[in-house]
Design brief:
Blueprint lengths: L1 H42 L3 E12 L12 H7 L15 E13 L11 E6 H4 L2 E7 L5 E10 L4 E6 L20 E6 L7 E12 L10 E4 L11 E3 L5 E8 L10 E5 H14 L5 E2 L2 E5 L2 H6 L8 E6 L4 H5 L6 E5 L2 E2 L3 H9 L6 E8 L2 E8 L1 E2 L11 E4 L4 E5 L2 H6 L8 E6 L4 H4 L7 E5 L2 E2 L3 H11 L4 E8 L2 E8 L1
Antiparallel strand pairs: 1-2, 1-4, 2-3, 3-6, 4-5, 5-6, 7-8, 7-10, 8-9, 9-12, 10-11, 11-12, 13-20, 14-15, 15-16, 16-17, 16-18, 18-19, 21-22, 22-23, 23-24, 24-25, 24-26, 26-27
Length: 481
């Protein structure tokens, strides 16, 4: 009898367990759903829809063009028809353009202003604006003015003449971890206050090629056109990033979005509020990644550090004793592992401040103290791996191992074009993203710095002869301006 009761009890438990497990799983989902709803309710009142009106230069559309073939959509989707030859540009016309984006109200200091509210957004959202209109979720609309813009980081601050609007708390993006839940809120395709959920896929992305200064948070939370400038928040409703762009090869969202970390954005925003512009720190060096081959050549056992490829004469670096061939392994007491991150750190240091550097020189460690200088407009190009030229309208980058594999090139043989300005001389000559430039005026160019120097020389005669290589082979291109 006892045995029969025991069997019945076991049978009952087997029947009840799946139902209990199912109920537990549903309850867990309910809790997650409530968490996301709570974030939306707390954050949405501070997120704004931004409509920008300005003047734009446009061309007549060719049969292969689409209404989406403009710089804004190229930022998200790249070239729409990569297999087709470059289209012939018609003469430019002027028209009024209306674009859209997102932004959010924030504060950097305690207390709220009585007469104005600051909003953070992307520079590319408000660049060239004649009129800016923002709309909050409660329906209230305001005219906005630009407080300051920083094209190199793609951060901008705008303001409205009313205070006490709901603002978002800025979190600490340095504490962000891969796999953490994040929420993106914005106005994709003009659909106001849309919420998408995902996780942090990666942090510290510095070679994306979108901005001059990059340290992106990568996320799979859906970010689409119109999301630009909106907040990326954690489950506590704190802003940990500002949505900027997506990566796509097909023209659709592919699960890779990029956001500017808020620690970087708020330092820039503070300077824009205080003085309307950004002053960046400057060392006066050209740096490059420490590859495995270079580490062996420089007798570096540890897999970290960056190489000083060039030291500008009379620069802060030169005065501190930094030399060409030094391998920087520590900065401000922390290991140096990435060219982009190091460059960002230097740029955000107040000029005049002294910082500690540790380098390996001829196999020995040396500690240096360097006084950070002020980055001028002329110095912007010389401090990083990417070089841009206004004359011909392209940005190039030194070929690293990763870039060489991506574009089927060889390290040390040319530079790769990473950006082409629409309507520029380079674009009209058929130079596209991914083109390899082998020579400038019949001189081999093996680094972005060399390329920039040769273009500067060519500027005197306002013409340059380039030897380029693309998927169609090698050819010479003569550009005149």
């Amino acid at each position: 009898m006892i045995r029969q009761w025991f069997q019945l009890l076991c049978l009952a438990s087997l029947i009840c367990f799946p139902a209990y497990a199912l109920d537990g799983g549903i309850e867990s989902l309910r809790q997650s759903s409530k968490a996301f709803s709570s974030v939306a309710q707390s954050v949405s009142p501070s997120v704004v829809f931004i409509q920008v009106e300005g003047k734009a230069s446009i061309q007549e559309l060719s049969p292969f063009s689409s209404p989406f073939n403009d710089d804004f959509f190229k930022r998200f989707f790249g070239e729409p028809f990569p297999g087709l030859p470059p289209r012939q540009e018609a003469p430019q016309q002027q028209r009024r353009s209306i674009s859209q984006g997102s932004g959010f109200a924030f504060k950097l200091k305690d207390g709220l202003l009585a007469d104005k509210t600051y909003l953070m957004t992307n520079n590319h959202v408000v660049e060239g604006a004649d009129k800016i209109r923002v709309k909050f979720k409660d329906g209230r609309e305001f005219d906005a003015a630009i407080t300051g813009r920083d094209p190199q980081s793609d951060v901008a601050v705008i303001e409205i003449k009313t205070g006490k609007r709901p603002v978002l708390k800025l979190g600490d993006s340095s504490r962000l971890e891969v796999g953490e839940w994040v929420v993106a809120i914005g106005n994709p395709f003009g659909l106001s206050h849309t919420l998408t959920v995902g996780v942090v896929s990666a942090i510290g992305r510095t070679s994306v090629g979108i901005n001059d200064y990059e340290d992106f948070i990568q996320t799979d939370a859906a970010i689409n056109p119109g999301n630009s400038g909106g907040p990326l928040v954690n489950l506590d409703g704190e802003v940990i990033g500002m949505n900027t762009a997506i990566f796509s090869r097909s023209g659709g969202y592919m699960g890779i979005g990029f956001a500017i970390p808020i620690n970087m954005a708020k330092q820039i925003a503070q300077q824009l509020i205080d003085k309307g512009s950004v002053t960046r720190g400057y060392l006066g060096i050209i740096i490059q990644p420490l590859t495995a081959d270079l580490a062996e050549a420089f007798n570096i056992k540890q897999n970290q550090g960056i190489i000083v490829a060039e030291v500008t004469k009379d620069s802060p670096a030169a005065k501190s004793g930094l030399e060409q061939g030094d391998v920087i392994i520590e900065f401000r007491g922390k290991p140096v592992t990435d060219v982009g991150i190091f460059r960002n750190q230097v740029s955000l240091i107040a000029p005049g401040k002294q910082e500690n550097l540790t380098v390996i020189r001829n196999g020995k460690r040396h500690k240096l103290v360097i006084s950070v200088g002020t980055l001028s407009d002329e110095d912007v190009i010389a401090t990083g791996p990417a070089q841009s030229t206004e004359e011909i309208g392209i940005t190039v980058q030194t070929l690293t191992g990763e870039l060489a594999r991506q574009f089927n090139a060889k390290v040390g043989e040319g530079v790769v074009v990473t950006q082409v300005r629409r309507g520029s001389l380079a674009a009209q000559a058929g130079i596209n993203t991914g083109t390899i430039i082998l020579q400038v005026n019949r001189k081999s160019t093996n680094s972005a710095a060399e390329f920039k120097r040769e273009i500067n020389k060519a500027s005197k005669n306002k013409r340059v002869l380039l030897l380029i290589r693309s998927e169609n082979g090698q050819r010479y291109v003569l550009l005149s301006w």
